[in-house]
Design brief:
about 160 residues; mainly beta; 12 strands; OB fold (Dihydrolipoamide Acetyltransferase, E2P)
Length: about 160
């Protein structure tokens, strides 16, 4: 593949609206990721080991959505109630599972008494199933994540009353 063909392919991908593209053949490997505000593409040729880097024009970020929430008077007491609870957060990015198998009961649910070291959930990351254990003892007050949903690092999973 000649450099002008590669450049045409990069321009096509930059204008396609895709966030990520990976193409690999015997002759080259193309990896494209769209970052906030710019697009960077890299082509790795297998024979001469040259790298072609192309930075496309900045991509307009979507306009932020304005939320029109009206704070209810009961919202302030609820926030102060949550202050006495301990939040157990996700230690990694992955998919949250409340049980080890779909047909089994959840490890914990609202009202469950838990002890330090007890398995609370499983987070699957890259086909590895990681058991998340409790650092504290107490009672589960709230489960903040639905089963089989993606979670981010440091995302709150459970509220626990340590008393």
């Amino acid at each position: 593949m000649e450099q002008k063909d590669i450049q045409k392919l990069l321009d096509f991908i930059a204008n396609s609206g895709l966030d990520e593209v990976n193409i690999e053949t015997d002759a080259f490997k193309l990896s494209t990721k769209r970052n906030v505000g710019k697009v960077i593409e890299q082509v790795y040729a297998s024979a001469p080991q040259q790298v072609i880097q192309h930075v496309a024009a900045p991509v307009a970020a979507p306009a932020p959505v304005q939320s029109q929430e009206v704070a209810a008077p009961a919202a302030a007491p609820a926030a102060s109630d949550d202050a006495k609870y301990v939040t157990i957060k996700s230690p990694m990015i992955g998919t949250f599972y409340s049980s080890s198998k779909p047909d089994q009961d959840a490890f914990v649910s609202v009202g469950s008494e838990i002890s330090k070291g007890e398995v609370l959930c499983i987070i699957e990351a890259m086909k590895l199933f990681n058991e998340i254990e409790s650092d504290i003892s107490g009672r589960v007050v709230k489960v903040l994540v639905n089963n089989a949903t993606p979670v981010e690092f440091d995302q709150p999973l459970f509220l626990v009353d340590p008393s």
